[in-house]
Amino acid sequence: MSATTKARRDTPPEEATAKAPPPVTERSSVAEKRDPGKAPPAATTPFLLDFFPLEGPDQTRLARFFERLKEGLLCTTRCPRCGALHWPPRVACPACHAEDLEWIDLPSTGRIYAFSAVLAGAPLGMESDVPFAVGLVDLDGVPLRIFGRIDGRPWKELDIGSAVRVEPLPLADGRVFYRFRTVD
Amino acid sequence: MSAVRRVAIVAGATTPFGVRPTTWSEMAQEIGAALFRAEPELRSEDVDSLFVGAAEPERFAFQSHVAPLAAEQMGLTPHRILQRTELACASGQSAIRSAYAAIAAGLSDVAVAVGIEKMNLPSMAEANTSMGCVMDRAWDGPHGATAPPFFAMVAQRHMREYGTTEEQLAAVSVKNHRFANTNPHAQFYSKTFDRAKLARLPVVAPPLRLGDCSSMTDGAAAVVLAAEDRAYRYTDSPAWIRGTGQYSDFHNLAHAGPLTDWKGLTHAAREALGRAGLTIQDIDVAEIHDCFSISEIVEYEAFGWCPRGEGGKFVLDGRSDVGGDVVVNPRGGLLGCGHPLGATGIAQSVEIFQQLSHQVPPSRQAPDPRYGLVHNLSGSANVHSIMIYEGGRAS
Question: pTM of the predicted model, to two decimals?
Answer without folding.
Answer: 0.91
